[in-house]
Specification:
Elements lengths: L13 H16 L6 H26 L1 E2 L2 E2 L28 H9 L12 E7 L5 E9 L9 H10 L4 E7 L9 H16 L3 E8 L4 E3 L8
Parallel strand pairs: 5-6
Antiparallel strand pairs: 1-2, 3-4, 3-5, 6-7
């Protein structure tokens, strides 16, 4: 039994397609009386340069789920990292607002407590032993930004059960502003949802302090 085979059209190879493209380009750019070999060389160079330019353009404009190509590593999520220093005891257990104020004052460089506003958060365990502290933000003469999400992200990661808030008033006034009261109320309410108690909020100046806990304000 004879088997019949249909003639299949020949598929162009990558090499033959490239040759055809170069030949076509050479015909387009060939100058009068120019040797065919010279036109082929020029066409090859032009096509090569064009390809390199196109590849760079594609690379710059390529995007993916993770943003611009090469900008981020796939699957890597930004996270807050906590550094523990085993050889250093910061303050021991919190016994009074005065001790906490003294600790916070020690974090300021000389003269800076009166130049701009700083917001600190101190993290404690169930025995009120200080686990660590964080300079949450640094602002200007009359205020600084406070983000409760960052405060509690660190609290949850450090397994803190209590926090103390503290910030300075560069101008020297100890009376809490309405914004101070609102921020404290907001942070305290969020803390209750996570079983993390806001033990105090201290307003510190060069010569004195104000304690929300001592004045039974908000907390």
């Amino acid at each position: 039994m004879k088997q019949q085979f249909k003639n299949r059209p020949k598929q162009k190879t990558k090499a033959s397609s490239k040759v055809a493209l170069i030949s076509q380009k050479a015909k387009q750019i060939r100058k009068k009386d120019e040797k065919w070999t010279d036109a082929i060389k020029r066409a090859t160079t032009l096509l090569h340069n064009q390809k390199s330019k196109d590849n760079k353009s594609i690379s710059k404009s390529s995007t993916s789920l993770y943003g611009i190509k090469g900008q981020f590593k796939a699957g890597v999520v930004p996270e807050i990292k906590i550094t523990y220093t085993k050889s250093r005891r910061l303050l021991g257990s919190v016994k009074s607002p005065e001790e906490t104020v003294a600790f916070v004052r020690n974090q300021f460089r000389k003269g800076t407590i009166e130049t701009r506003e700083y917001f600190f958060v101190i993290y404690l365990n169930r025995k009120n032993t200080i686990l660590g502290y964080h300079l949450h933000s640094m602002g200007g003469l009359s205020g600084t930004v406070v983000d409760a999400r960052i405060i509690f992200a660190i609290a949850l990661k450090s397994l803190a059960t209590g926090i103390i808030l503290a910030h300075n008033h560069p101008a020297g006034g100890l009376k809490p502003s309405q914004q101070d009261i609102n921020q404290t109320t907001k942070i305290a309410n969020i803390g209750k949802l996570h079983d993390i108690e806001v033990l105090d909020h201290l307003i510190i100046t060069k010569d004195g302090y104000f304690s929300f806990a001592e004045e039974n304000l908000v907390l």
